[in-house]
């Protein structure tokens, strides 16, 4: 493992973080626009979310557009502006430090990091759900599901510590495969209609496109789900210190955002036209394969299966090495023990990745091999669905809190030094103003929506949902707050030792 010498100062808000100088010296700047776009798509484009969106019928497009305009695009704009101003490793951690200092940077950094661990598990869990879709007799017992998820997570850790250039080539290929699946889904939709079949969904009623405000039978829960589908604009910039040049920041955000919109709309349309929202929602992500099977045959369906499963095998890998960068910079900047920041011969943050992998496997063991045999959670076959939705909902709440700081940081930077901000501004001011107003409101609405409306009401009622998700979120935020205090103390203590 490589070691490094850390200067003997504890960074304050106005100082240059140690990690800002260390990363460019020790980690090669090899990430281009294609690499960052691929990473962006793996972080955001979970194609299985189309099945959940489709469960809302035509209103799926209303919520995809509403979430895109009020949350996704403002987040992209804020990320582009902050990334251009501060193209450093750690993205939101670094930007919040510039705005508020050490305590808040660690707190928000934790709120940005923790969902990554849950998504590592969730990505592997999707693989399990697809294996169950291929053969309903596979992985019926919770411990079997947990064992497969743990193996996938362990594999993700092994891959993530290899040379980034090699891993990134694999990621680029996998992204090509997922959009091959999107292309096949689009083709299946066209073929279905050209053959003279009627769409399984009736798009003619305006009422089906609108928001149903009924708390019990309405579709309000879709806003939180769509918000989840758009979270993670800042994730690739966790590796901001490893990009080739600043143009990469704006290019990957532009092309990645366009592809996310295209992918979600095509996949959702395919499900609504071929299967209908009710069937797609009840089956889940595997309905994407069923739709292709029904129109183009088993071979095409198998191709889509391979594309999607390959993609979600790599999701834990990408989340592992991108979110490990948050631990890396915290270690370098003395917010965590120095050992967290060490690199291996491949210049990968091996200790940070190992730690994340262990945490994710530990979470999996508790959920799949302990909890089901202690607490009655209903059908074991439905456990993977419950775990995926609960972990993703908790991730949405915590992540939405950290995402709000994209906008808060911009406001702070502007009012602290308007002249300097205008010199570095790359977004038209009216658009930036609208984004920093609308974005935080969308974050708040997503938090409320996710907390009070169950994503899987047939398995977990609204009455149970809010305290399960709320409880997990409170625990996470409490850990973040306490951890921030210890992180600040750690920085002070290590500075005293160095002196």
Describe this protein with a few key phrases.
499 residues; mainly alpha; 73% helix; globular; disordered N terminus
In short:
With 499 residues, this protein is mainly α.
Give a written overview of the molecule.
The protein has 499 residues and is mainly alpha-helical. Helices cover 73% and strands 0% of the residues. It contains 18 helices and no strands. It has helices at residues 18-26, 33-44, 49-54, 59-85, 92-100, 102-134, 142-160, 164-194, 221-230, 247-274, 277-283, 287-296, 298-332, 350-374, 383-416, 418-424, 429-452, 462-498. It is globular and about 65 Å long.
Morphology? globular
Number of strands: 0
Mean pLDDT: 87
Indicate the radius of gyration in whole angstroms: 22 Å
Give the helix/strand layout.
Elements: H1 18-26, H2 33-44, H3 49-54, H4 59-85, H5 92-100, H6 102-134, H7 142-160, H8 164-194, H9 221-230, H10 247-274, H11 277-283, H12 287-296, H13 298-332, H14 350-374, H15 383-416, H16 418-424, H17 429-452, H18 462-498
Helix pairs in contact: 2-8, 2-10, 4-9, 4-10, 4-15, 4-17, 5-6, 5-15, 6-7, 6-13, 6-14, 6-15, 6-18, 7-13, 7-14, 8-10, 8-12, 8-13, 9-15, 9-17, 10-12, 12-13, 13-14, 15-16, 15-17, 15-18
